[in-house]
Amino acid sequence: MSAQVLSFNQSKPKNEVCRYIVVKAKIDKNSDLRFSISPEIMHWRDDLWIIDLNSTKRYWYATSLQKNQSLEDALKEQLNISLDSFQWINCKHPWQGLMLLPMLSEERRLYYFEEDYCQNLARSISWESWLKESDTLYKHLQNLVKQTALSKFSTKRSQLLRAMERLGLEDVYDLEQADTSSIQKRFGLWIAKLWEWTFPQKRSDLPLMQGLQDLNEFPWICEKPKQTAAKMRALDYSVDQWDQLEPFLQEDIAHIEKAFLRQKKISVCQIDWSLELYGGQSFSLKIDFRNPYAIFDDAPVFNTALTQARYQFEAWQKDLSEEKSFHDYLEAYKIVSWKLEVSKNIYLQQSEQSLEIDSGITNYYKILDLENKLPKPIEHYRIKKGFAIKAHETKEKTEGIFTQKDNLWTKTASHRPLYYKTTQKKLRNLPYRSFFLERNSTDWWKEEHSEDYNWDFYKSHYQRNWNWIVKNSFGEIYELGRFD
Fold first, then answer.
1. Fold category of 230-373 in CATH
2. From the centroid of its chain, how far is CA 446?
């Protein structure tokens, strides 16, 4: 009888890499090697970093095809060059990786949050572990959200832990089917956000929509590169036509290319174009590239950069023409100066840079270069006619199936409050908006007149809260707790 040794890697899904990667590694905060995979990177705390692959994923996919390797191997190769040791996990939302990464041990292996091994670990996460990173979350939110919106964050967090202890629910996934609105009603907005980040709902299958639905108010604070390139220009005369400014813009892009000449590992992802008008107004245009732009390969014409700049300029001119004062004060809307600055770039390692220089002969990189010159994405979607009217009757119903603990949560939330008062508050009258819940009798078998010991429970709304009210057989009314 032979035994077979199974590896956790066998449970790894074969689907594509998700948008976010959470990395645990010692990275120099002043080193631009942080941007070796993507220009979108956030320092969470200490040695925890979050990488957004949205702007470079297609580039790395083309690179993996050229090298006859997987997308995971292409990303790992870059990290191996930049870092001595690291742990990383791929996930749909950063919070998923932040809560699960401390439970993973193997270095350099890319874990997938959706794989069976990670899902089994996630189902054992306690409420304390789930909230472990909430202190760091609070610090980041303080920089982005008004203090009034965070005033009850710590209180609601404590209430959640007490409520779960009373309900006997030890793990977060015991409430996987809980409704987000119910979580928010009882524990506030940001606890509900944590819930949505843990169980993100897929809103669309369209690739173009994926970048619009993932963060969901997560406090993303993007790191900025220490080394960049910029060029300011003051014109001798005001201009408002593309043919007039294009030669000057080409010279400034060439200046940026020369500033990066000693660092040919750099590929540009975004250029900020700040405009000053004759009338004193200021505007900022973003020259974005769908894929990393090898500015050195495009010299000396810089056709790709000028093409994207022209798209932005024409769109801006169209918006200006819709203003009421535009046609009356044309001179005031002419450009007198500007500043070009590279705001996002990636630092490719030498092994990748040599591949990028030779990329002009490959179809993969030709497609990426073509996409950088297009004004709109090449994907196009439309509604397809369908005649499967009865499909909903045969489709397997998965929603609405609750576990025993989910049923306990639902029934408890509707008939019993989560917060009980230590001292009962006596009321004069039953509130106007009161809904009968149930009737109980206390020790009726011990008394001759059992009807005197009935307790009627109500759900009543007053003072902007839903309260738990009891009325006894003697007409006495007490407030016992709160539902929200």
1. Dna Ligase; domain 1 (3.30.1490)
2. 61
